[in-house]
Amino acid sequence: MPAHKNKQPKPSILITGAAGALAQQVIQRLRETCNLVAVDARVRVELGDQIPSYCIDFNKRTFEDLFRRYQFDTVIHMGRIRSSQLSRMRRYNANVLGTQKLLDLSHKYGIRRVVVLSTYHVYGAMAYNPALIDESAPLKSAGLSADLIDSVELENLASIYLWRYPELNISVLRPCNIVGPSVRNTIAKLLASPLAPVMAGFSPMMQFIHIDDMADAIVLASQKPTRGIFNVAPNDWVAYQRALELCGCTRVPIPSVPPALPRLILRTIGLKRFPAYLMDFFKYPVVIDGRAFENEYGFTPKRSLKEIFRFYRDNKKPL
Amino acid sequence: MSLVSFVKSLLVSSELDEQINHIRKPIGTLGYDPWGYNNEAVKFGFSLVKPIYEKYFRTEAHGVDHIPAEGPVLIIGNHSGQLPIDGILVGYALASRKKNPRIPRAMIERFFPTVPWLGNLLNEVGAVLGDPVNCARMLANNEAIIVFPEGVRGSGKLYRDRYKLQRFGAGFMHLAMKYNAAVVPVGIVGCEETVPSIANIKPLAKALSVPYVPLALPIVFPAKVHLNFGPPMYFKGGDFSDAEIDERVDQVKTEINRLIEKGLTERKRLF
Question: Which ranges carry the NAD-dependent epimerase/dehydratase domain (chain A) (predicted)?
Fold first, then answer.
């Protein structure tokens, strides 16, 4: 018999990708007011007695047991494996097939709110991108890089379920670069390192959101069941090379033309923090428009770019 | 003192610094806007263009006050001279006018963003990839935008076709009507003579993936430039057929032709 059969006063929330820094922040914000269950496909996270935590592959049968045992009201899916992790095939299994399983189970067990964390990378970086890309823009990255296909496929799946099962109230969030303390994604590692590669002669406009602000945004989204796809980004912009300067990074230019040259160099070096498939994101701008999310959820980022960069400058490890 | 601030102190006077800071732009906390415009870069650009505008081309601008002090504006001109010198001069004329100066934006060719250094530099001083979405968003931001509806058809034309307006794209008219933007026509005389080209080396242009490669001397002649701005034209929005839109585009074209004729009459000599 399920352990929590009785109706609970607190909403019950499943959080995937619980080992990530952002998920930890979301858990901190929700642990008092909600009954949380944390899942991660990579490791089991220790979250104390209050929060059950599991290390489960979504494609395994045991995953469904969680839905049977805890009657979830909401699912916050932050378990997308980043393109810098695992092989393409394993990522496809986790991100696409795993997400499909998660959405199927959400439908089967009557979940009323699903928040899916995606990325602005799905728009793809190319020279002809206009600025302030809105949510209806085509997702070009699948055609530009095979390493981002699983991220686009994950979004396509979420969109299909969004229309097919409106009662799931799915929202997809496409944040800009998430940075701040303990974030370990590509851009955060670059800002944190003393030496940062740049594409010679290119300094695209970028947007950065502090991890605390992003966690606030996810919490807001989980509490208001508006269906849809939303960019999440502050109305503030900075050129990549200027951001590195403000973070106290020494810039290391990589020859940028013809395009085959930097690709060859990056593939040869194999730098994790400056992967070849993200090369174009350091050449061409992908500036997104976050106003729809701000208006819908009354969200305003609180941490300024200066504050974000000051953190990286003050915490720079000398070589 | 860092090298940047040293060069700045040489180039940018405190008066100019104040003047540019005074012009209000929708920029973020670090001085950038979403398209890469940067206030500090504009100050450098302004200082460098000043002698080119005043001494090299001895530009005479008439009617620049026709450009409204605020609100969305499309400045529509004739394109010429292989290099985008005309856009720079029109931009400087507006940015340096005594009453209510504005820093305009310019829509540029699609190949510029792929050129290292140059692409970023152009973005920083206000030039933006010529995409209708960009133009629409900037009009919504109440910007003044310089548009050459002839595009490369105008700038790449040969010397023998000087001052003959090429086909105008109608995109600017759709946007002007949608955003209720003032259309300010400008007739540019003199830029045709800056880089006279007698032929377009098409195979080389194709090999380099650029719109054209002019067969011309590798110098920019110091032709005297006349800019004649006309009164703003307003076009009411609504559901119009393509033929009706073309008619409106022709009205603007006719006005630009008139302003070019005016400039040609005013011009006493080429240099």
Answer: 13-233
